[in-house]
Every structure is written in C-alpha cells, then in structure tokens.
Amino acid sequence: MGRAYSTIAFDPAKCDGCGDCMKACAQVKTGTDDIARSRIQIQGREKAFELALCRQCADPKCVSVCPAGALDKDGDTGVIGWDASKCVDCLLCTVGCTYAGIALDEATGHVAKCDTCDGSPACVPACPHGALKYITTANIYNEVGQWEDLFAPGLAGCQGCNTELLMRHTLRRVGPDTVLATPPGCVPGMGSVGFNGTTGTKVPVFHPLLTNTAAMLAGIKRQYKRVGREVTALAIAGDGGASDVGFQSLSGAAERGEQMLFMVVDNEGYMNTGMQRSSCTPYGAWTSTTPVGETSRGKTQDAKNLPLIMMNHRCAYVATASTAYMEDLYEKLDRALEASKTGFAYLHVYSPCTTGWRFPSHQNMEVARKAVETNFVMLWEYTPKTGLHFTKSVEDPLPVTEYLKVMGRFRHLSEEQIEHIQGKVVENMQFVKRMAETEHVG
Ligand code: SF4
Ligand code: SF4
Asked: Cα of 200 to ligand 1 centre, how many Å?
C-alpha cells in the first residue's frame, strides 16, 4: 500500500476568480504583489475558472523528465522539492507537468512551484469563498499500510464493497494468531472460506450456521485454551444473522462472558442473498422484501438497535464504529482485542452497501460519513467501568435528508416518512445521551 499525503483541493463552483489566493502566494513566496509570480494560478473567465497548481503527484512526470535530478519527492511530506544548485534551467519539467504546476518565474529566471508552505498553505485561508481546502491525510493508512493483509487478493465482493475494506483492516489489526468465524453473509460470500477447496483467508477460518456462530466460536476458543494455545477468537458476522436467528447464541455467549471479539458488519439487510430486510434495516428503506409500489412504501418498522442491546448484557466492551472514521475504528479494535482476553467484546460497524442501498461505489465513504454527520449513526463505546461515552459527538447535525438523499433505497420517501425518520434520529440521540450521562459504579 502506498503512502497517503495531504493535498490542496479546488472547488471551481465556489471560485469567482478574485485572485486573492494568488496575491497571498506572491506575498509569501516573493515578497511582492505580482500575481504573475504566484505559484498558484487561477485561469479562466466569468464563471469558468481552472487551477494551475502542483498536485505533488505520486508518480511525478516533472521528476522523471528532469535531466539534472533537481526535483525530488519527499517521502515523508509527499512534497516535490526543487534544488536550485542542481537545476540547469532547461525547463523540461514545465513541459512534463500536465497541470502547469511548475512554471518559469521570469523575475528570477528559474522555475518555481508550490511547496504547500510546509503544510500551512497561505493561499487556502486567503480565499474568501472557501474554494480552496487543505485536505490532511488520515495518517492511520501510512501507519498500517505495511501490515500484512490476511485476506487473499481478488475476493468476490461487489465493486466498492465497504465490507471487504472492513474485513481487510480488521484482520490486519487482529493479526495472524486468530481463528475466524464467518457465518453465512457477504463475508463468506466474497470468499473468506474459499471456493473449490481453496481459502481466501490466511488464518484458520470456519463457516458456522447463522444460528450458532457465537456458540461454536466459544467452543473453539475453549478447546484452544485447553491445549494451552492463546488465540484471538474473532467472528465477522452480518447484521441479519446476528440480530435475528443468531441472536440467541450471541446473547448467550455475551451473558456467559465468553472470551471473543464479535464484530457485526451492519449493512442493514441480508444483502448477499437478494437484499432482504433484517431487523437492523431502517424504517422506510426499500429492500426486496419491503418493496415500493402502490401498497407498500418500504419497511414499516424501526431498526433494532443491536449495539444498545449488547451494552445491556454488560459485556466487557461494546462499541459502534464506521470505516469513514478509520482512526476511531482502529482504536476501538485495540480496546476490543484487549477486552476479549478476559471477556466478551462486541464491535458494531456500520457498513454502507453499494448494491443494496443503491448508490455509486465511489460514494461509499461519503455515505458512511453523512450517516454520522446527521446522527443517523452515533459513534460511542462502553465498558462496565466507564459506562457509555461518545467517541465522536455531533452537536450540530445536518438534517437527515442530507443522508437519505444520497441513496436510491430512500428515493420514494414521503414527507411523513422523512419526518418519522428525523424524529427517530432525535429520539435515539436523546436516549444515548442520557445513557452517556448516567453514573457508573463499575
Ligand atoms: S500553498 Fe503556498 S506556495 Fe502553494 S500556492 Fe499556496 S501560498 Fe503558494
Ligand atoms: S528546469 Fe531545472 S528542474 Fe526543471 S527539468 Fe530543467 S533542470 Fe530539472
């Protein structure tokens, strides 16, 4: 996995061509107001503006065409630097760059390019319209990118599948001393237990029934203990099996305090078998068993709140998470793993489904993020000692329509249905807030 770097993003829809960013750059880099010397150039007329700026490319053509080795990408910051002592002023780099990101500064007779002002770009705050944004990378990817991926490449997930991302990151963190249970659902459907005698998982993996995952995993963990081996017992299960027919074994294992980490991948339905509703499917959602037509307008019941139910088992650890907040997810995996050494750890991860929720695959993170920004999904964690607390608190949430409108499964909703969903979001938030305020005695 390559490294991720921070970058300057431009939104042409917000730019009116005022040139304030260019003035700020010229002042910072040349000490003049001459915008021709700015390293960011906004070009165009009226409402159509374009950006000429160094993208600090991963495979920079300016670097590869330079005959003098005067340009180099910094492995830590990702910024492409220019070394005046090596440059022979041939200007080949200006031809190599597709984005016009490196250009001749006629006042000096040398090329000049954006260096992101050491991570604090002067142009970004100078823009009065918010057309420039400095997007800082999630450093977690740079940290964990080199860890071993314990799933084989080429699993058979849908394009852009969030669950595959979650599986790969989870196993990366949990590590090789693991025995994995993947009950019927998207996870084995994409090949965790393999096809034709080969397995897609690089740790021991088995395929329990929907009904007995936690019971079977508990037995396996106990047998490992009996023979003196310490392994992590990990289940990656769908919301359908866990909240419906598998709930009795899940609840039983939690009540007994079995030492395991049980992760529920909540894509709000039985997605790999034809997108049927589960008890975690939200009110109003289209599924193949809650259709939309003359007599039906999607699911008529509210979703079961499985993580809150698990919290009431007083498990050693319970948390909700989202792949849109990967640092938070990794921290929760750490704490869940620790808790699973002495008791039952439960992690509930919301996992948007491109196919069943009907949105384009490149929108996955956006959908996951909007769920949290509207409080449709809340990120919290619980231990019997500390009680419940939010790990991301959204005090000024977006209206729930901002989340609903990004998916086809809610396209048919009436005003009354949207009002119902918004009311439930507020009610759920108030409920969880009250839980967070409750004193705990340990
Ligand atoms: S980031 Fe710095 S160097 Fe680059 S355009 Fe903006 S002000 Fe200029
Ligand atoms: S102008 Fe300088 S940096 Fe650009 S290609 Fe020529 S030698 Fe390299």
From this structure: 46
Query: Which of these, 349, 346, 341, lies nearest to 314 by C-alpha position?
Result: 346
- Going from the Cα of 353 to the center of ligand 2, the distance in angstroms, rounded, reads 47
Q: Which residues, 6 or more positions from 41, have their beta carbon under 8 angstroms from its beta carbon?
A: 22, 51, 52, 53, 100, 103
Among all bound ligands, the one having the nearest atom to the CA of 85 is 2
0.70 exceeded by pTM = yes
| Cβ contact 94:104 at 8 Å | yes
Ligand nearest to the CA of 20: 1
DSSP H or E run through 242:
helix 239-243
Residue 315 CA to residue 303 CA, distance in Å, equals 22
Consecutive 10-residue averages of pLDDT for the chain (442 residues): 87 95 98 97 89 94 97 94 97 96 97 97 97 89 90 92 96 97 95 86 96 98 97 97 97 98 98 96 98 96 98 98 96 98 98 97 96 98 97 96 98 98 97 88 55
Ligand 1 atom index nearest CA of 117? 2
Q: If 0-12 CB within 10 Å is exposed, 13-18 middle and 19+ buried, where does residue 152 land?
A: middle
The amino acid sitting at 440 is H
347 within 8 A of 239, measured Cβ to Cβ: no
Question: Token pair of 402, please?
Answer: 């901002």
At 141 the pLDDT is: 86
Nearest to 400 by CA among 427, 380, 418: 418
Whether 379 is in the pocket of ligand 1, judged by its Cβ within 6 Å, is no
Cα atoms found within 13 Å of the Cα of residue 264, Cβ hemisphere only: 30
By C-alpha distance, which of 360, 285, 273, 377 is closest to 322?
377
Q: Give one DSSP letter per residue of 334-358, joined into a string.
A: HHHHHHTTTSEEEEEEE---HHHHT
CA–CA distance, 96 with 193 (Å, rounded to integer): 47
